[in-house]
Design brief:
Shape: globular
CATH class of the domain at 2-172 and 206-239 and 272-292: Alpha Beta
Number of strands: 12
Order of helices and strands: EHEEEHHEHEEHEEHHEEHEHHH
Radius of gyration: 19 Å
Strand content: 15-25%
């Protein structure tokens, strides 16, 4: 089976590619390489590389492709807020276009990387959102993902399986490391400032380790189509309240590094909160994430400890790289 991975040089794609190669898939990597290729140097000879923009990708790019894992996107609120127009163009319009091209080319499976940020609730609302619950995303990023879902799912047919994976906040190490994600940010702040910083801490987040995200895509590639076609699945290991999460991360850091870290709690800032049910995915494919946040932190420490890293470098922050690439939009 040949699998096209869009955005395969990104944070999740850089972890997913080795899993696909090890599992015996032929991989067609489609990416504009905004963050370069150096972090994938060892893998590039093992995949077919298409340097292209998903907004203008040609029909021929889908030749002989059996499945598409569509990761390419502007991937968080700061990036979407930086240019709402570009956000909708890439996350919604280009995604729908990708779905139509894939279907026309005879691709059999299309797996779309969506987000649990589609859900939004008040801090004192402890409802566990299921995939069938009504949603009303208010932020540019989450709204663009929701619209893309609505445009993709009607394309599904028996010969064109469409699956939406709404991921929780991802954490853990990737060769294209991001330090703008909650667990990764906590570890970065501890290593660079000697303390953890939490804004309020009452917010809820569904979290998942990046290795489990990669495994979930492999599970969906192999799952019986009747189990996953026209379906939306939440993906998370566990729902966390941010302050208890910070305390857990601090405990792991202190054990691993034999060092004390203060925990600074700052005044409340505007931030979304949401909790999700993970039951549907487990029932459909008999698999569930097992990567704890402890494993995420330990994985980060294995890669970062003892290395001289410029934690302020734009490579680690999507929005800072966007500002470099599109200075006229600032």
């Amino acid at each position: 089976m040949r699998v096209m991975v869009t955005g395969g040089a990104g944070y999740i794609g850089s972890v997913l590619l080795p899993h696909l190669i090890k599992a015996g898939y032929r991989v067609r990597l489609v990416d504009k390489f905004f963050f370069g290729q150096a972090h994938l140097r060892a893998l590039l000879a093992k995949v077919e590389v298409v340097r292209a923009d998903i907004c203008t990708l040609k029909q021929s790019a889908f030749d002989n492709v059996d499945a598409v894992i569509h990761l390419a996107a502007l991937s968080n609120d700061p990036m979407a807020n930086f240019s709402p127009e570009l956000n909708y163009y890439i996350n919604t319009e280009a995604t729908a276009r990708m779905g139509r091209l894939a279907k026309r080319a005879g691709v059999s499976r299309f797996i779309f990387a969506s987000s649990c940020s589609i859900y939004q609730q008040k801090a004192n609302d402890h409802h566990l959102y299921k995939e069938s619950d009504p949603v009303g995303p208010k932020e540019y990023y989450s709204h663009s993902k929701y619209l893309a879902e609505q445009l993709l799912l009607p394309l599904a047919e028996d010969k064109f399986v469409v699956t939406v994976l709404r991921k929780g906040t991802v954490g853990g190490y990737s060769p294209r490391l991001r330090l703008d994600l909650v667990v990764n940010t906590m570890v970065k702040t501890a290593l660079s400032l000697g303390k953890l910083v939490v804004n309020d801490g009452k917010q809820h987040r569904p979290l998942v380790d990046i290795q489990d995200v990669a495994k979930a895509y492999l599970v969906l590639l192999k799952a019986p189509k009747e189990k996953i076609n026209r379906q939306i699945f939440n993906l998370a290991y566990k729902n966390y309240s941010i302050l208890p999460l910070a305390r857990e991360v601090r405990r792991v850091l202190q054990r691993e590094l034999k060092k004390d870290f203060d925990l600074e709690i700052r005044n409340r800032v505007k931030d979304r909160t949401y909790r999700v049910s993970m039951r549907k995915l487990t029932q459909a494919v008999s698999w569930k994430p097992r990567g704890t946040m402890k494993k995420s932190v330990q994985g980060l420490l294995r890669q970062l400890r003892g290395k001289k890293i410029d934690f302020a470098h734009p490579f680690y922050y999507n929005i800072e790289r966007m500002k470099q690439l599109f200075p006229k939009l600032t």
